[in-house]
Amino acid sequence: MKNSKIEKDHIRHLLLFNYNKGMKARAAFREIDKVYPGSISVVSAIRWFKKFREGDLSLKRKEGTGKEKTFSDDDLKLVVKSNPYMTLNDFAAIFDVTKSCLSKRMKVINFTNKNTLWVPHVLSNKNKCDRLTICMELLKRYQEENFLDYIVTGDETWVLYENVAQRREWSERGEIPGKTAKAGLHPKKILLSLWWDVKGIIYLEFLNRNETINAIKYQQQLRDLREALALSRPSLFNRGKVHFHHDNARPHTARDTVALLKSFEWNIIPQAPYSPDLAPSDYYLFTALKNALKNKKFTNDNELKDFVKKFFASKEPTFYKKGIYKLPSLWQSVVNCGGDYAK
């Protein structure tokens, strides 16, 4: 009975009835589907409502003429932008054309189907505003004085004993590929803290087992960093030109931490929340380290620590400078995107 002509006519009458009540197509579909499950698809409901809005209230489907129906590029763009997650079949049904016809038209209007991008956080309007304001401020400061050579930046990251990477392999058609086990839920790891500038690593520390970074620990690290800076970068330290950059983690923004940094007389570079794309350690240094660690396995702390230290020591100053000097272009990208993550 579900596919009979009588029921189809009845369903179309219900669609028109709900349209005249001012209901939206999707809401009408839900109401009808409650009573007649599976009798109509949401795409069909949308197509019929589009027909009604165009002034055609007849309930008869027009017989095909053998030619694809025409519709404007602007109509297609409007529907796609309002429903970007629908399939090609869905759009073809809305416009009552074949999938191949719709595919060709998508190419004409320069639309492609892509995976959505992974981003660190879904930014609120306030988040975007904060990022935009800070990046505009830093760009203005940079134009007045190139302070990139004076930036000291740092963060912390976990380094693992076993660094599993998914591998690609050639195999005969139909042959089952090899398997790679994922890392466990609680892998053996060490927490690494470091600070660096355009010349290289200034201070590096591995935390002890079960040790965490709280405000007291972080303040001690800052004192150690200041001593290391005085020894390895005396000209920068003595001139008082340090432009210090770190993120907004709680130990970093604690009242005593802020007071300590103020006593150092360092210039603090503002960092907007949820912005690892603007933190050199995140977008550059740690990424390079994790790539070097791929498929590496270590049996003890000393092996892992030695590898990390040798990795950083093997890099020329140009490597570090490249990471810091990316900042102005990233600031500009955020401005161009209105505070959002750069595409």
Structure overview:
The protein is an alpha/beta fold. It has two domains: 5-108, no CATH class; 125-170 and 178-336, Nucleotidyltransferase, domain 5. It has helices at residues 5-20, 25-35, 42-53, 73-82, 88-95, 99-108, 125-144, 215-232, 234-239, 250-253, 255-264, 280-293, 301-313, 317-324, 327-336, and strands spanning 151-160, 189-197, 200-206, 243-245, 267-269. It has a five-stranded mixed sheet with strand order 3-2-1-4-5. The longest helix is centred in the middle third of the chain and has 20 residues, at 125-144. The radius of gyration is 30 Å and the shape is elongated. The relative contact order is 0.11.
- The residue ranges in which pLDDT falls below 50 over 5 or more consecutive positions are 1-6, 63-68
Q: How many strands appear in the DSSP assignment?
A: 5
Tertiary shape: elongated
Determine the oligomeric state from the structure.
single chain
The rounded Rg comes to: 30 Å
User: Main beta sheet: strand number and arrangement?
Assistant: 5 strands, mixed
Report mean pLDDT, rounded to a whole number. Answer: 85
CATH architecture of the largest domain: 2-Layer Sandwich
- Per CATH, the superfamily of the largest domain is Ribonuclease H-like superfamily/Ribonuclease H
Order of strands in the sheet with most strands: 3-2-1-4-5
Provide keyphrases for this structure:
single chain; 343 residues; alpha/beta; Nucleotidyltransferase, domain 5; 2 domains; 5-stranded mixed β-sheet
